[in-house]
Amino acid sequence: MCSYVLTRQDGPLNRITEKLDPFATIAPVPASSRHLPALGITLKLASVVVFAGMLVCIKYLGRDIPAGQAIFVRGLISVVVLALLAWSTGRLHLLKTDNWRSHALRSLCGTVSMFCLFVAIAMIPLADLTAISFTTPLFLTVLAMVFLGERIHGFRWTALGIGFVGVLVTIGPHLSFAHGTSAGVLVALCSAIFSAFALMFLRKMSGGEHAITITFYFSLTFMVCSALTAIRGWPMPTSEQWLLIVGAGLFGVFGQVLMTYSYRYAEASTIAPLDYSNMIMSIVLGYLFFDEIPTLSVWIGAPLILGAGLIILWREYSLKRQLSVPSSQT
Fold first, then answer.
1. Are 152 and 308 within 8 A, CB to CB?
2. Which segment of 33-42, 62-71, 293-302 scores lowest on mean pLDDT?
């Protein structure tokens, strides 16, 4: 899914750029390795395609397979792949941490977000889901102001206003009691909100935590939490359903790997805006696989939400370039 690059101008993350993802990572990237932008862009676009494949698999499963069952398989695959990756590269020490509280807060919020996402996929069109997911940076901006004491100036207030209008336009037609997707829209919004909480906790974590460490404990958390849903009973999937479940898990893990590596070879300012290509992929795949045609409200509201996210993104990079300017002037 989406990733957002955010810079913190004060506190322990001063002068550290983080690559934040709703479900996985913080990935400090040494400047010396950012010398292959074409490769970075290619890897990022590949991750967009692979993540889209995950969403298609989950949507095909629909409500026949409980979200917890699909999430458990995704978590199991992720934990195994990450453990093997750490072992093969001689980095098993990365699977140890002393930062349990921060990992727990980030992982639990991310787990709730993932459950909401998997539930919402079966209830609303892919384009609608993607448009709503782009509200995460808007919620994060508000959370950073309330809980982290960050100041919001004119640019961000403008972005929040534009994004709020975009959200109202996008979800408005769904909020009629006569419309069956109302619950799906609300669940998708919950996913975006908890994703923002997960990012906020990541923002408070030490920049010393490695991407593998954070991703491993998040994967372990949502695997354990999803396993608890087996108490209610999991159906035995058909061979086709098993293929979709395992496919979703593999797409999710390798999409994350591709996205993480893309930031190794290109500047974050080059990679991050490519997240918005998710909207194009969602429209194309929704039409090809599910005969979904975005409504007029999505065509109008989604650009407003995307525009608001880009304003926030641009402002973050402007602040990064102006670290020497007093905060009262930014």
1. no
2. 33-42
**In 3D, which of 63, 74, 164 has the Cα closest to residue 120?**
63
Its domain, for residue 262, covers 4-329
Helix, strand, or coil (residue 276) = helix
Task: State yes or no: pLDDT of 300 exceeds 90.
Answer: no
Q: For residue 189, what are its two tokens? A: 């919004």
Q: How far apart are the first and last CA of the chain?
A: 30
CA distances from 298 to 171, 269, 295, 305 (A): 8, 27, 5, 10
Rounded-to-integer distance, Cα 52 and Cα 283, Å: 11
Rounded distance, CA 79 to CA 228, Å?
17
Q: How many CA atoms lie within 13 A of 34 on its CB side?
A: 12
- pLDDT greater at residue 313 or residue 215: 215
Cα 243 vs. chain centroid, distance in angstroms? 24
Asked if residues 277 and 48 have their Cβ atoms less than 8 Å apart, the reply is: yes
Q: Which residues pair with 17 in a beta bridge?
A: 7
Number of domains making up the chain: 1
pTM of the complete model: 0.78
Output the CA torsion sign for 188, 277, 285, 287.
Answer: positive
